[in-house]
């Protein structure tokens, strides 16, 4: 019975008694006498016996009022009821202190985390960015380092779940408890669970900002309890804060540095990493980094992100590049697929990476010279694999080279001028691919449709054409 209502509300000391208290107050269905007779009233870790003559419910109300800085009356007044109805964290409020600790901390400075699933409320890229930024809130002020892994057992496992989810700490549906996390340790230790019945957002106040909730829960994952300082990140109740301007309050800084010490690093790029800005498919000025096919889908690259366009779906799905290829570079220069090898090649600077499926190909990354390009070529602007000829074109400035995939050599007589092969193309090529018999050449924010068989250009389109933007 206790576990079925465990996230109704969790106040300090006695978990089950607190839950019954919230049920009494909010639902008016349990009497004080029945609560006193329940075997769930006490938790074996704590002595919750009330002083003689004081109702256990009134005692709990007084303890709660003391924690939140309310007038201590021991009775249910309007201020207390309003506080109880606020969305909050599902971790008990163990101590009355400006900041509190569990008495546990990680005995290492490099921690791993794994996102085990995603909420449908946000894109994969938005969830990844929110989680990463929330962890960096704590890394910025401590010696801690967080590394994401995609398989195996992580120190901090992150999941979106509903109701009963196997940890004897059920969620309660929309509202009330938003999430909970576990103190450092083995097993569930460090893990953070988010109630997927909530409406999570990237930064909008019309819902619950995942970054704020995650940053709070990761405080618990690192060993912090709740703070009774209003405005502290570790305050138990949720209030909207703009993720773009968020600064960790001093009470939280003092708490986490009490456990782990301060950050002595000097490199500002490490101290305060900038979260990636999610590109907008409808941005008329956007210049894509690269486009390639991949096992029947089309992949569009921009900065740290990609869109995957599946044949069976009308809307491309956005995610981080490293959610598909964990060891891939970001901000790439070019990409193409060799269907013969079932391999996708990604180019950045003088290096090239290769992946079959989502697995890296042994021996990569290699340098551009492995394709026979001159040593003076420091980067390429785009690549185009022609499925009919089996040749791959490498665009460098106003010129292009032709690579014979079957012979694995550059063809003689190159480089040649781009505008000799693609009539009317006067600007630098930024991306290229083939689809349904046509060749698409990107140059700046525009895309040009060619028929290589006849050498004619058919249409000029916006970059967002294949991204299904309604403004295209």
Automatic annotation (TrEMBL):
Its cofactor is Ca(2+); Zn(2+). It is found in: Secreted, Extracellular space, Extracellular matrix. SMART domains: HX, ZnMc. It catalyses: Cleavage of the triple helix of collagen at about three-quarters of the length of the molecule from the N-terminus, at 775-Gly-|-Ile-776 in the alpha1(I) chain. Cleaves synthetic substrates and alpha-macroglobulins at bonds where P1' is a hydrophobic residue. Keywords: Calcium, Collagen degradation, Disulfide bond, Extracellular matrix, Hydrolase, Metal-binding, Metalloprotease, Protease, Repeat, Secreted, Signal, Zinc, Zymogen. GO terms for molecular function: metalloendopeptidase activity; zinc ion binding. Residues 102-262 form the Peptidase metallopeptidase domain. The modification Phosphotyrosine is found at residue 364. The keyword Glycosyltransferase does not apply. Can bind about 5 Ca(2+) ions per subunit. Binds 2 Zn(2+) ions per subunit. The active site is at residue 217. Zn(2+) 2 binds at residues 89, 216, 220, 226, 234. Ca(2+) 2 binds at residues 155, 189, 191. Disulfide bonds join 282-469. Belongs to the peptidase M10A family. This is interstitial collagenase.
